[in-house]
Amino acid sequence: MALSTPEAVDTAPAKSDVIASHTRRWALGFVALAIVVWLFYTFALPNLGTGPQTFVREWMPLGSLNEALVWVICAVGLNIVVGYAGLLDLGFVAFWAIGGYTAGWFMSTFFNQISNGFYFLSAAPPNQPGIHLNFWLVLVIAGCICAGAGIIIGAPTLRLKSDYLALVTLGFGEIIPQVFLNGENVHGFNLTNGAKGIAPLDNISPLPFGPATVSIGNAQIAISKPLGPFDVTAKYVIFVLVAAFCVFVSLRIREGRLGRAWLAIREDELAASMMGVPLMRSKLAAYAVGAFMGGLGGVVYAVHNNSVFPDRFNFAISIILLAMVVLGGMGNVWGVIVGALGLAWFNSTGLPQFGDSFNQQFGTDINFPSYNYLLFGSILVLMMLFRREGLFPETRTRQVLQEAERSDAEELDGGEA
User: Ramachandran region of residue 220, left (φ > 0), alpha (ψ -120 to 50) or beta?
Assistant: First the structure.
């Protein structure tokens, strides 16, 4: 029996320490960046001159950054399915939509046909019909509903592989938005309000236990006032916390037994099954966890827009999310975050502002936002040709995709040529 040399024993912990240090640096970097952004928009920007304020509000509005955080939450969830488990999902927008409508159902006056006014730790005005739950509770409910939907959809379809699985998820992503679009009359019950959508949503409370006040003498001081549609700075903090939770869960699961099972399935499903990895259970877990995060993203998106409309959940969202994962680096959470932030900003603010500046400078009238998918497609083609592993690839993915191809002689001689 071969004995381990001291050098072999010492190198394994060193490698794990390097990975942990790398993850720690990325985490600290993003935390520092989030704090700097909050400090800048809260204290520095109001004290700047008119010119810098105009530039920041045109090129980097905080509302656009909040929307980019929604994309980060959903992209991290999709990365679990695609990047960790290697399951191609083209219908992730369905979970985003389910989460959004869950917020519409439980944070508005929409369900007045069910309740004359049910409140639970809500920041909504009193004496209103409908169901009004606390924002943090709705996050949990939406995540659980989406996780259940992921299991229900995945159970009969995850026996399929590659292109066939992608087609099934594509169908699922097309069906769910149509259900919400045509759900105004389900056997006499208005489930989704059809194309009119659900608006407005309740104000949210920053604290899980609802609005709170402190009595100082005869004065009542609010320490947790409700956040309305225009409280973008406070919502930025909440969105960052939700995104940080998704990143933390993704990283912790990856290091555990379930995460290693996902990576084994991604690398070689047959070999993983022969080594005792439960394929169906592991795949369903990947779908459930990814769908849970998609539900969180849907709630945050609904709160960001203060409304839910079915035409906002189209197939293109699934493609953009997949592009974020691929461009950032499949399997690498930090790369996915960078890809999501970059593409979300480019799509919502960067390209329109560049178009306006270009047209003003050269006197043209080019509709640059209409070419966004042309640009996305070109970027994907170039990435697949020159950097298939993404901008910030996972170490294992980079090693596989950058491995030199074997010649015909090496294939015939078993690598001896």
Answer: beta
Query: Between the CA of residue 117 and those of 122, 129, 136, what are the distances in Å?
Result: 11, 4, 19
For CA atoms 46, 50, 56, 61, give the dihedral sign: positive
Residue with tokens 């109001």: 46
- Same domain assignment for residues 233 and 353: yes
* Domain total in the chain: 2
State the Cα–Cα distance between residues 397 and 15, nearest whole angstrom: 17
Q: Are residues 41 and 143 in the same domain?
A: no
Strand partners, 133: 120
- The structure tokens 């998704």 sit at 246
How far is the C-alpha of 417 from the C-alpha of 411, rounded, in Å? Answer: 9
Q: What is the domain extent for residue 364?
A: 71-200+229-394
Task: Name residues whose C-beta falls within 8 Å of residue 26's C-beta, 6 or more positions apart in sequence.
Answer: 334
Which residues in the chain land under pLDDT 50? 1-12, 215-216, 220, 411, 415-417
Residues 28 and 86 in one domain: no
Q: Tens digits of per-residue pLDDT, 85-115? A: 988 888 999 999 999 999 999 999 998 888 7
| CATH number of the CATH domain containing 185 | 1.10.3470
Q: How far apart are the first and last CA of the chain?
A: 31
Based on the number of CB atoms within 10 Å of its own CB, is 143 exposed (0-12), middle (13-18) or buried (19 or more)? buried
DSSP string computed for 244-269: HHHHHHHHHHHHSHHHHHHHHHHH-H
Distance CA 297, CA 312 (A): 13
Instruction: Give bridge partners of residue 216 from the DSSP assignment.
Output: 219
Encoded amino acid at 356, one letter: D
Measured CA to CA, the distance from residue 120 to residue 256 in angstroms comes to 36
Omega cis (within 30) before 129:
no
3-class DSSP state for residue 38? helix
Q: DSSP class of residue 202?
A: P
- Tell me if 45 is assigned to some domain: yes
Residue type, position 325, single letter: V
Does the residue 405 lie in any domain? no
